[in-house]
Amino acid sequence: MASEISTGTAPGWTSVSVLIPLALPKPYDYKVPAGMTVRPGDYVIVPLGPQELLGVVWGEGTGEVGHNRLKSIIEVLDAPPMPEVSRRFVDWVAGYTLSPAGSVLRLTIRAPGALEPQRMRTAYRLCDRRPPRMTPARLRVVETASDGFARSVRELAEEAGVSDGVVRGLVDAGTLQPVDLPTELPFDAPQPNASGIDLSPQQAEAAALLTAHVEAERFAAVLLDGITGSGKTEVYFEAVAAALRRGKQVLILLPEIALTSQFLERFERRFGCRPAEWHSDVPSRERRRVWRAVAEGSVSVVVGARSALFLPFPDLGLIVVDEEHDAAFKQEDGVAYHARDMAVVRASLGQFPVILSSATPSLETAVNVEQGRYASVRLDARFGAAELPDVSAIDMRLHPPERGAWLSPLLVTEIARALEAGEQAMLFLNRRGYAPLTLCRTCGHRIECPQCSAWLVEHRFRRELACHHCGYSAPVPKACPSCGAEDTLVACGPGVERIAEEVATLFPEARVAVVSSDNLRGPAAHEAVFAAIENREVDIVIGTQIVAKGHHFPWLTVVGVVDADLGLENGDLRAGERTFQLLQQVAGRAGRAERPGRVFLQSWMPEHNVMRALVSGRRDEFLVREAAARERVSLPPYGRLVGVVISSPDAELARKVAREMSRRAPQADNVSVLGPAPAPMALLRGRTRLRFLVKAGRNVNVQSYMQAWLADMKIPNAVRVSVDIDPYSF
Ligand code: ADP
Ligand code: ZN
């Protein structure tokens, strides 16, 4: 595949523009010294002020600065140049998100030491020169090395069962000759035909359609819309195989949380080896290896979290976005981009298809399908004998739990029944810790984070109160911090730890696993608990959203959602969609094998749209209603939205800047500026936050509008203005 990388001819430029991966809006010109040749995309070292920095050759010099005043490139690094399509992608993302191009470039080089030459190690190989004196020990070494493979002194000595000295003697005699070997192993090549599975007729039809898109080598966005357990992964694996057969690279994006060993094992079963992995838990040496192999075209499949989108693939032929609706694909820190949307852009720049896979498509994607911009492929039956679980709501007004408890007697009965049948039950509550709120019974004081507008969450195992937004924590106080009364603090509401306490009283014999990010640090801990569940070493799983995604637990038959109304409380316009997606995913964990599954939603408002849609399974109707509600108020995807957050440790200054911005907001057709109002987290990490929402018609160029607005705003250093195009919550 490496031969297909277009290295481009050196254009003989005397000056070039170089983009530096810092928060700089554009590339700067540099002189190409005589005798040096640079190609577009080359990684170079250039001076900037007193520093020498890494940069990427973006194009020919702009001539903005006189040639004589330019500084010279110091060095061209020995690495495959950044492909043209990657550079166009950086520019596109920068333009769309209104981020400095250099900040986006930084996303493409997130591997420490990626551009340093690989370290080599010395190994030894047998040559024809016989040693002057042959001993039995030396003979054993010669026999060991006679297979032609190069090995280190240590390896040879160990395999031959001799001392290092014997091997060194042969090196000195010239019988063993040194060779330099790379310290890093190459990646195995996934085999498109390693194992075929028999697809059902419906699966086969879907796979053929996706494969045809891959073979057309043209841009297309295709929704793979299949109910949980319908075999979406098996189906898109066929498209992956098709891309591999054409010698293309493939990227599979998963929400970070779904990147489990279960997925990697499945990949290995299908393709005969593990893919390259890219996410925050990958150690930096391995990141280097992956980055380098991607750039060289010597790795063909990368499975990664959102940041993998920025790897410099020279020959990408397919992107799969699994769980495309997942909120984790959008983040507001740094460059605020939605990985699903940017994957579509990357595919269109590279002229290849992107597959968006989901059982609960986002409203944006559903509307894109309906309006004909995206194609769609459906899978509406579970694979094999499995049936979709039966979902019902438990009306908590009619079947309330006992005082101080959180599980309705109806749900308790169902769990007991599952356990008696030797099956597993799962209780889902998207709340970490023991209790979300600590309240003083005497004065009513609620313990809040000193740096955020959030209550502190009690973690009883750790005996502390913690903020889930900034990481602040403190021991649980003996007395109320406000009125000083002792022993009057009470824990309000449940978190998973509290549910575990209740379960322990109800089912003292049951083996319980609490699955939340607090008890599971790192991939090994995840693997261990999921393996234990699969192997039926656990009877009751109590978990946060970690358990909602992608897992396949064949013995799980009863799922109880402890508080189905939870996500609807904060009332933003996406709350219904988000809650539906999450609970549908959770429900999808039940009954994935022969034993039928049942799902119980504990709700105080079972008549709510979301509950009714979940119980009836009428997803499309629900989406149509949600879409209509958005259309009425021209909200995304029927209109455009930009979030502008003004934040500062100095609250008064933040308000002052916001007022000033409000005065200067340009008038434009089809654009209205709402706010400033306190942002959803009005205080975060000690910074006061105010927010504008810019609402615009679908055809308005919101980027130009924002640029015009911000162009001559003087923002004091202590204030940060962050712009979020297409904010996830509104
Ligand atoms: P989804 O991603 O749609 O929830 P999966 O791809 O995880 O569904 O498939 C559900 C289960 O069914 C998995 O264990 C998968 O291996 C199995 N499965 C799906 N299709 C087939 C098939 N054609 N042959 C064998 N097993 C299959
Ligand atoms: Zn906090």
Automatic annotation (TrEMBL):
Query: Where does the Helicase ATP-binding domain lie?
Result: 213-379
Relay the cofactor remark from the entry: Binds 2 zinc ions per subunit.
Q: Which family does it belong to?
A: Belongs to the helicase family. PriA subfamily.
Question: Per the UniProt entry, what is one GO biological process?
Answer: double-strand break repair
Q: Which domain of life is it from?
A: Bacteria
Top-level EC class: isomerase
Q: Which NCBIfam families does this UniProt record tie to the protein?
A: priA, PRK05580.2-2
| PROSITE patterns on file | HELICASE_ATP_BIND_1
Summarize where Zn(2+) 2 binds, as residue positions: C449, C452, C467, C470
The UniProt catalytic activity note for this protein reads:
Couples ATP hydrolysis with the unwinding of duplex DNA by translocating in the 3'-5' direction; ATP + H2O = ADP + phosphate + H(+)
- Identify the keywords attached in UniProt to this record, alphabetized: ATP-binding, DNA replication, DNA-binding, Helicase, Hydrolase, Isomerase, Metal-binding, Nucleotide-binding, Primosome, Zinc
User: Where do the annotations place Zn(2+) 1 binding?
Assistant: C440, C443, C480, C483
Q: Which cofactor does it need?
A: Zn(2+)
Pfam families for the chain? DEAD, PriA_3primeBD, PriA_C, Zn_ribbon_PriA
PANTHER family of this UniProt entry?
Answer: PRIMOSOMAL PROTEIN N
Q: Which purpose does this protein serve, as stated in its record?
A: Initiates the restart of stalled replication forks, which reloads the replicative helicase on sites other than the origin of replication. Recognizes and binds to abandoned replication forks and remodels them to uncover a helicase loading site. Promotes assembly of the primosome at these replication forks.
Report quaternary structure and partners. Answer: Component of the replication restart primosome.
Name of the protein this chain belongs to: Replication restart protein PriA
Query: Its Enzyme Commission number?
Result: 5.6.2.4
Q: Name one GO molecular function term.
A: 3'-5' DNA helicase activity
The record's section on InterPro entries has: DEAD/DEAH_box_helicase_dom, Helicase_ATP-bd, Helicase_C-like, P-loop_NTPase, PriA, PriA_3primeBD, PriA_3primeBD_sf, PriA_C
Q: What does UniProt give as GO cellular component?
A: primosome complex
HAMAP family cross-referenced by the UniProt entry = PriA (MF_00983)
